[in-house]
Write a structure and sequence with these properties.
heterodimer, A: 355 residues, alpha+beta, Rossmann fold, OB fold (Dihydrolipoamide Acetyltransferase, E2P), 6-stranded mixed beta sheet, 5-stranded antiparallel beta sheet, 8 helices, 24% helix, globular, B: 277 residues, 1% strand
Amino acid sequence: MTDVTIRNVTKRYGALTVIPQLSFKIEDGEFVVLVGPSGCGKSTLLRMLAGLEEISGGDLLMGAEVINDRPAKERDMAIVFQNYALYPHMTVAENMGFALKLRKRPRAEIDERVDKAAAILGLGKLLDRYPRALSGGQRQRVAMGRAIVRDPQVFLFDEPLSNLDAKLRVQMRAEIKALHQRLKITTVYVTHDQIEAMTMADKIVVMNEGRVEQMGTPLELYDRPANIFVAGFIGSPSMNFLPATVALANSPALKTPEGVELPVDACPTLTGRSEVTYGIRPEHLELGETGIPAEVVVVEPTGSETQLYVTVGGRDVVVVLRNRADVRPGEKIWLRPRKGSAHLFDPNSGARITG
Amino acid sequence: MATSSKTNRTTRKLLWTLFWCVLAFIYLFPYTWMVLTGFRHGVDTISMPPRFIFEPTLAGFKHLFEVTGFQKYIINSAVVTIVSVVLVIGVSAPAAYALAHVSRRGGALLVAILIARIIPAIAIGVPVYLIATRLHQLDTYQALVVINVAVNIPFAIWLMRSFFMEVHPTLREAAISDGCSEWQVFTKIMLPLVLGGMLATAVFVFIGVWNEFLFALILTTSVSPTAPLAMLGFRTQYGVQWDAVGAAAFLVSTPVIVFAFIMQRYLVQGMTMGSVK
């Protein structure tokens, strides 16, 4: 096991720069999730770590050693691909033992390590099968097994659950997390699914256009998003954003352009500002007797919660209620933001302005 | 209503069957006639009306082997074809793999390959003859093998590249990450997966080289002429020796048909390539 440092790494394809300059560190044994929209550079970064793409500048380090020019096969990182990339002409056991066979390990050792990994992943009865005879979840396990058998210093996962159905994805998510807790191998996991990121990561790196927008624990990112991008990306459903003007100088009172008053806690940094973007998470809005006036458009009961699509001064807002609500489309309601839950952002830079 | 629809279906089936029978006849008749010619006396072949019932004879075959020395032509064809196929596949498979998976600047080479394929063989006949003469390679196996390899490599690369491209690139990346060198990726991962396509390509190349006539005519005289050339010798000043022509055509076509029949699974795979994932 080892830590991994990404220091001023850039990636260019001809004149196109996909990663301008990136720096962060992945601690030994940490589970880091790179998350961001398609094309943000997260998979490219993972592939550069794996040695499948060259870096255009900067340094990649494993421990204290620079590995920029070290070929992929000597990096001791095992990668699990989105499409599993199992060798179709090899059985499960052959797939899992392939890397060891290449390293000319003794047959007995290969068998022992394959059996051990198969036991961890519940693949014991499938070792003689070919990948075509496996279900999606089983193939995913074999792909992980292939990585485990190598006992690498770093695990790399490139959107490994994207091809699975929703139910299996939740199950595999828990399995990967349990696996990490058991093996404690440094892991870099790429996904565009923020729920995967939130549920699995020790640390999340939110990327956008090749840059790190914010890095931190899942709850740090949820509670204190650094900017509108992170605020909108982390959390499901997404945070609601409303443009607002500061009603009175040195006063925390905010109003939307339509004149709807938005309650906000005292915030000295508002001094001198006239416009802000008001952000509130759907689950931080409750029904009340007073508060923000809204009109219900759609009601979606899911059993455990109720999702309301409402308009506030003509703007769309989503509300998630933990209890069952007896409201109907067209009904006028009042929304009460939970105390201390509003986020304020600079409308121009998108940066967080509340403390 | 039900009866009418059933009648329609039967009529359609009958028409289709008839269509396929006519098509099969159009395709098979010339070949069948050629084979029959090999087992007929010359007079039976040219008699009018044509004779479908005749007294079979092996005179044509006897003439081939006892007078013409046809075995030499067959051996020449076999040597040139086998060596050419092995070389074409040996060179084309790694090249096709590299173009499909490794090289990012293969575009220009692919265009060059296509151009090489487009140029008609007759256009390079004279230069090839001159080069072979200068190098003292006229009437040798080497000359025929080199030209057949050169002519077939572009086609083989083009075809095999398509097979390699059907293998998902992450398989190569997974193998590299597992510790494979590029050559190991090629031999341990890619080749087993494109074996069918490779065999299909080999069949196409085999057919092409075995049937090759033009360069054999240009480059050979008495030592290394191939079987298709032997056919020329049966048109003499006294007329065409139809029995020998038929027998030779039967012998020349048999290996191709047998080979193609054995490999038909792969041939179909080669021809339907890309249609099924």
